[in-house]
Specification:
Largest sheet: 6 strands, mixed
Distance between the termini: 32 Å
Number of strands: 13
Order of helices and strands: EEEHEHEHHHEHEHEEHEHEEHEH
InterPro entries: AAA+_ATPase (IPR003593), ABC_transporter-like_ATP-bd (IPR003439), ABC_transporter-like_CS (IPR017871), ABC_transporter_ATP-binding (IPR050763), P-loop_NTPase (IPR027417)
Helix content: 25-40%
CATH architecture of the largest domain: 3-Layer(aba) Sandwich
Main location: membrane
CATH topology of the largest domain: Rossmann fold
CATH superfamily of the largest domain: P-loop containing nucleotide triphosphate hydrolases
Strand content: 25-35%
Structural class: alpha/beta
Subcellular location: Cell membrane
Keywords: Antibiotic resistance, ATP-binding, Cell membrane, Membrane, Nucleotide-binding, Translocase, Transport
Protein name: Lipooligosaccharide transport system ATP-binding protein
CATH class of the largest domain: Alpha Beta
Number of helices: 11
Radius of gyration: 22 Å
């Protein structure tokens, strides 16, 4: 990505956020460039949402330096909020209003004229594929429709930067893929995307670059492919044995892989050639109840870096 000073949308240096004696964000450095899709990946409690709230200029920085659109949120919070869009983790739609009126009322907060906000609302309803539900009450929408409406609402002010906190949590696979398509289209239109997620497949699909966070710190940074190449193997062989057998079985196959991880319900054998590794397991007379060979993912990266699964 480019590194010109005028290309930077977000710059954080030694950024910290504390709540009393608890330090949620512990001195992170981040730079996000115009046009990027950037992700904060990590489990619940990693500090992702606290970081996003500081970037959104709704939570003050405890210490360190933060610049959003070249402005300090401590002194230019209202200007920043006028130029960004925010899709919160929880839907905050007005259930008493229609789908279209949710957009219109929200747009008026940004000082848009009635004519401008109505035109913009119609554009966003089409973008979110909700035109036919324009007069429906929010309560009658599916979960996926509500998330599309929330994203549409966050775009009412035509933002340069869109912040999405866990955008697809709780959605079924079809709804998630539809939202991914909408976000990809926004990026193609030049909107800079910053999202938090604990779904490794979502990060791989959407992010040009990301940081992996754990316990308020950044433990890795790079593109999804680069992180997988640096911290994992090409393939992973998963072996399932009987309850309570995995620790013993790990000792019997440890020399067959670059690394072996023991999870409660399976063994993970990190290897460049999964099928060959499975064949060698069979040659030793071991008979797993189930086997699977797959490519490495960001969850494997997180397991390597922190010793636990993303969903722990």
């Amino acid at each position: 990505m480019p590194t010109r000073a005028d290309d930077s949308m977000i710059q954080a240096r030694s950024l910290r956020k504390s709540f009393g004696s608890f330090e949620a964000v512990r001195g992170i450095d981040v730079q996000i460039h115009r046009g990027e899709s950037f992700g904060f990946l990590g489990p619940n409690g990693a500090g992702k949402s606290s970081t996003m709230r500081m970037i959104a200029a709704v939570s003050p920085v405890t210490s360190g330096e933060l610049r959003i659109l070249s402005m300090d949120p401590a002194t230019h919070g209202s200007q920043i909020r006028g130029r960004i869009g925010i899709c919160p983790q929880e839907d905050t739609l007005d259930n008493d209003l229609s789908v279209r009126d949710n957009l219109i009322v929200y747009g008026r907060y940004f000082g848009l004229s009635r004519a401008a906000v109505r035109s913009r609302a119609d554009e966003l309803l089409e973008f979110a594929q909700l035109t036919e539900r324009a007069q429906a009450k929010v309560d009658n929408l599916s979960g996926g429709m509500k998330r599309r409406l929330t994203i549409a609402r966050s775009l009412i002010n035509d933002p340069e930067l869109l912040l999405l906190d866990e955008p697809t949590t709780g959605l079924d696979p079809q709804a998630r893929h539809l939202l991914w398509d909408k976000l990809f289209r926004l990026k193609q239109q030049g909107v800079t995307l910053v999202l938090t997620t604990h779904y490794m497949d979502e990060a791989e699909q959407l992010c040009d670059r990301l940081v992996v966070m754990d316990k308020g710190e950044i433990v890795a940074e790079g593109s999804p492919l680069r992180l997988i190449a640096e911290h994992s193997t090409r393939e992973v062989a998963e072996l399932r044995f009987g309850v309570g057998e995995h620790e013993d079985m790990a000792d019997r196959v440890r020399d067959l892989a670059d690394r072996v991880e023991v999870l409660p319900d399976r063994l993970l054998l990190y290897t460049q050639h999964g099928e060959e590794t499975l064949a060698k397991v069979g040659e030793r007379g071991l008979t797993p109840t189930a086997v699977l060979v797959r490519r490495s993912t960001l969850e494997d990266v997180f397991l390597r870096l922190t010793g636990r699964s993303l969903v722990d």
